[in-house]
Amino acid sequence: MIPLCVPQLRLNRFSAAVSEAVRSVLEGNQFILGREVERFEQGFATYLGVRHCIGVNSGTDALVLALRALGIGLGDEVITVAMSFTATAMAVLHVGARPRFVDVERNTRCIDLAQIEAAITPRTAAILPVHLHGFPVDMTRLMAIARHHHLAVVEDCAQAHGASITGRAVGSFGDLAAFSFYPTKNLGCAGDGGAVVTEDPALASRVRALRAYGWFDDRRISHELGQNSRLDELQAAILNVLLPHLDEGNRERAALAARYRRLLVDEDVRLAAENPGAVHHQFVISVPRRHALRSYLLENAGIETGIHYPVPLHRQPLFAAHAGSPLPVTDELARTMVSLPIQPEVAASHVEHIAQSVRTGVAECKVS
Questions:
Q1: Residues 6 or more apart from 129 whose CB is under 8 A from it?
Q2: What residues are paired with 102 via a beta bridge?
Q3: How confident is the model at residue 108 (pLDDT cuts 50, 70, 90)?
Q4: pLDDT of 60-91, one tens digit each?
Q5: What is the 8-class DSSP label of residue 37?
Q6: Domain ranges (residues) in the chain
C-alpha cells in the first residue's frame, strides 16, 4: 500500500531533534507563549520577509483573527472562492460577514482575477485569495485590483508555506495572511497550529490582543472581546526544528512534481499550469472518470489517493445561501480532481509506479 501521506514520517526524519525540542519544553516551566513561540514567530517572519508573525491555535483561527483585526464584520462581504477547505469561508461567517464566491481558473485552480471586479458591491470589504495546493495566486495583479477599489486583502496561505511570486513569499503581499501548521502541511506540527503575519504593527498588535482575551498589555485587562487562541510551546518547538528544512522539502516536492509531469503525458490527464513558485502541497490531476480511476489505483496498484475537495463550498448547506453566480469551473474541478501522493517521505521511490498506474488506469476506465 502506498498511502496518500504520512505526517509521522516527516517527524521521524528529524526525530532526534524533535525529541530533544519536546524534552526541553517538558523539562521547563513555560508551556504557553514562551521562548519557543517567540523564537518561531521571529524565525517565520524572517523567512517570509515580513515584520510580524503571531502564533495562534489553528489556521482557521488565523483567518478569523485576521478578519477581526481589519474590523470586518456584520454587513460586510468578502470575495473568495468555493474551491477551498471549509475554514476559508467559515472564518468569514464567524466574524458576521458574508462570503461572496467567484469562480477559479481552470489552469491555476486559484481565484479567477478577471471575475473579481464584477463581484464587488458597495458592501465588499475584502478579498480572501487562496493559494490552492501550494500554487500562488498572482498577487501583484490582485493587489492592484484591491487597492483600486480600496479593499483589504487577507491571503489564505494554509497550503502555501514557502510559495513565491518572482522570489517574494506569499503571505507578504496582503494586509495580513493566515497560515496553518496542520500535520499534513509542508510545514506541519504534531497537532493544530497557525499563524497570522503582517507588515503593519498596528494590525499585529490587534491580533496579539485578540488571540489572548483582548489583552493589550501585561495587566491582563480585557479591552474587547478576544479569545484563547495561542500557539503552544510544544508545537512551536517542533516547528522550530522543521522550519530550517522547509525549503529543502519544497525542493523535493518540486522535483517529484516535475517527474510526475514528465510521466503523465495523456490527453485525459489534465494538470495545473506549471508555476516556478509553487510548493506542491498537493499534486492534483483532473480526469474524466475519477471514481473509477481511484478504485483502480487502490484495488490494482495499492495506491491511495485523495480528493481536495469533493463538494465545493457553494454546494454545502452552510454556504448555499451565499452561492451567487454559477461557478462552472469550480463544479467541473470538484467532479474531476484527484490528489496523488506527493509527500517526499512517501512518494520519492514510487513516482514511476504511480504515474504508470494512472496511465493504465485511465486507459482501462475508458473501455470499461
A1: 80, 81, 110, 111, 137, 139, 142, 153, 155, 156, 174
A2: 81
A3: very high
A4: 999 999 999 999 999 999 999 999 999 999 99
A5: H
A6: 7-102+109-244, 246-367
